[in-house]
Amino acid sequence: MKPDFTIVTDSVSPEMTLKGFSVSDAMKKSDFSVKDAERMGFSCDAAAIKRVMDADPEYKAAIEKFAQDAGLSLGDANIDALGQFFTLFNEATINVLYRGRTAAQTFGTKVMGDWTTERIAFKTRELTARHALYDDWSRAPYAAYNYGWDVRDTIRLEWALEVTKLEEAVGAVMRRNPYGDKKDAIVLDNSIFNNEFFWLGLAIDGKKLYGALTEPNLAGRKANLPVDMGSASLTVDDVIACLTTIKQDLANSLMGNGDIETLPVTIAAPLAWQTAFTIPNTVTGYTANKWLAENWKAATLSFKPELNDADDGAPEMIVFAKTVPGVGMDTINLIETSKLRLIGAMPSVKGREEAYSSSLAGAICACPLGVRIWANGDAPGSGTDTATDTTTDADSDSESGT
Question: Model-level pTM?
Answer without folding.
Answer: 0.73
